[in-house]
Write a structure and sequence with these properties.
It is globular, with a radius of gyration of 21 Å. The chain has about 180 residues and is mainly alpha-helical. The mean pLDDT is about 80. A two-stranded antiparallel sheet has the order 1-2. Strand 1 and strand 2 form a beta hairpin. Helix 1 runs antiparallel to helix 2, helix 3 packs across helix 5 and helix 4 packs antiparallel against helix 5. About 70% of the residues lie in helices and about 5% in strands.
């Protein structure tokens, strides 16, 4: 019988880690998606955690090695653009399709956010990871779209901050309302 605890995660190659990570996501998705009783729910979550913990430790160790190389947004943007170039995505004529991909990712994030706010307390920490993953996908699709349109997303962010930093107004029901719109 297979016992995951009998294996040293450091001996697994990156592909195996990637596949195990997918399995963990699927197990947690099953636990979250289907209305199991607490015993079944615990089984899937515990199994996912048993697989995930050594993977996280390995990833943390790699992250510690890379700690001095922490990337800023500009560096990450460049890496995403390089990835997109390698995948032959950076063509202006693809912008409409890329925009739809961006919208798809926004809705996937919204679905995870709904579960986060409407779900059981036990799902919140698990679901926050899903939200972070979906938000990352939003950034990637937006960076690719900006590149396709010849727009520098960092400059856009700088311009937007410059504009909002001088705004006056107040927050009403969780939204900032510009002074001239009050």
């Amino acid at each position: 019988m297979f016992h995951f605890d009998d294996y040293n995660i450091e001996d697994f190659d990156d592909y195996a880690i990637e596949e195990l990570t997918k399995i963990v996501k699927k197990l947690k998705h099953i636990a979250r998606e289907y209305q199991f009783g607490s015993e079944e729910f615990s089984f899937f979550v515990d199994l996912g955690d048993r697989i995930e913990k050594p993977i996280r430790i390995r990833k943390d160790n790699k992250m510690i090695e890379e700690m001095n190389k922490e990337m800023n947004f500009e560096e990450l943007k460049t890496k995403v653009e390089e990835w997109a170039k390698d995948k032959d995505l950076l063509h202006e004529e693809n912008a409409e399709k890329q925009f739809m991909k961006f919208i798809e990712e926004v809705f996937e994030f919204k679905s995870e956010m709904d579960v986060y706010f409407d779900g059981a307390e036990t799902l919140k920490s698990l679901n926050k990871e899903y939200m972070e993953d979906e938000m990352g996908d939003i950034f990637v699709t937006l960076i690719v779209l900006c590149n396709q349109l010849g727009i520098d997303c960092v400059e856009c962010l700088e311009m937007a901050y410059e504009k909002i930093s001088k705004r006056k107004g107040k927050t009403v029901n969780g939204l900032f309302i510009k002074e001239e719109d009050l």
